Structures are given as C-alpha cells and as structure tokens.
C-alpha cells in the first residue's frame, strides 16, 4: 500500500475520533450548562440520560434538546401507564355497578360502588403512605429533570 493511502486512512481515522470526542464533549458541555443553571439536575443523570440515545454522540445542542424532550415524553408515558393500572379497578367496579343497577341487582351494585369508592383511597395510600416515599417519586424526579434538561438547552439556543 502506498504511503499516501496509509496517510489518508490515518488522517480520516483521526478526524473521526476527534469528531466523536467533540460530540461526547457536547453532551458533557450541555450537561454542565444545565446543572449550573439548575442545581437540582444531577450532572451524571443528565449525561447518562442523553447518552442513552445512540444518536447523542453526534448530536448538536438542538438535537440534544429534542432527545431530552423525547425522554421526557417516554418517562411521562410510562408513569401514566402506572397510574392507569392503579385506576383500572375503579373503572371495572363502576362498570359492574352500572350493569348491576340496570339489571336491578342493587345489592351487587352497592358492593361494586363500595369497591369503586375505596380504590382511589387505596391508590392514595400507595402513593402517599405516611413515612414512605411516593410510589412515583423516581418517575416524578426523572420527568422533572428530563424536562429541565430540554428547557435549559432550548433557553441557551434562543
């Protein structure tokens, strides 16, 4: 192989490595800016979250803001699913009460309605039981932090 080809390959490789390091530095730089603006956002959380997206390594600030916003949507969707499961029993019980009332089974209707009225309190007890953290504390904190990351990157872009 001639020397020019080897030199061209080495230069190309060096440029690729440099741009990869710059992109990683971009994630780190953006996270430094975010955590300086909002000390409630953990630097490692910011870096780890953004780097979870495989495109973050080559992303500019605008793309990192989009990644953070997408992560916020994913987090909120997952949390919504958990809450939905907690209230599904209320829907089932209330639907059973409707059927029971319609068919004249008022005793069954009363049982279903008692269950429907108790379930929100059960949910509340799970979420905010005295002396314990909310069932959704991690999800709440992650959602807040992810939205803050996107917010501060967007603010910087303005």
TrEMBL record:
InterPro entries: Invertase/methylesterase_inhib, Pectinesterase_inhib_dom, Pla_a_1-like. NCBIfam families: PME_inhib. Gene3D superfamilies: Invertase/pectin methylesterase inhibitor family protein. Residues 1-25 form the signal peptide. The keyword Signal applies. CDD domains: PMEI-Pla_a_1_like (cd15795). It comes from the Eukaryota. The keyword Disulfide bond applies. The lineage of its organism: Eukaryota, Viridiplantae, Streptophyta, Embryophyta, Tracheophyta. This is Pectinesterase inhibitor domain-containing protein. Residues 22-153 form the Pectinesterase inhibitor domain. Coiled coil: none annotated.
């Amino acid at each position: 192989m001639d020397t020019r080809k080897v030199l061209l390959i080495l230069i190309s490789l060096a440029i690729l490595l440099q741009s990869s390091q710059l992109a990683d530095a971009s994630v780190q730089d953006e996270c430094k800016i975010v955590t300086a603006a909002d000390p409630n956002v953990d630097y490692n959380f910011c870096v780890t979250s953004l780097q979870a997206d495989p495109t973050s390594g080559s992303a500019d600030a605008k793309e990192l803001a989009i990644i953070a916003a997408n992560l916020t949507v994913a987090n909120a969707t997952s949390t919504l699913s958990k809450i939905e499961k907690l209230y599904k029993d209320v829907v089932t019980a209330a639907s059973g009460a409707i059927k029971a009332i319609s068919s004249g089974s008022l005793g069954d209707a009363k049982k279903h309605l008692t269950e429907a009225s108790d379930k929100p309190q059960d949910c509340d007890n799970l979420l905010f039981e005295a002396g314990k953290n909310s069932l959704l504390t991690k999800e709440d904190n992650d959602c807040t932090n992810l939205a803050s990351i996107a917010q501060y990157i967007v603010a910087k872009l303005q």
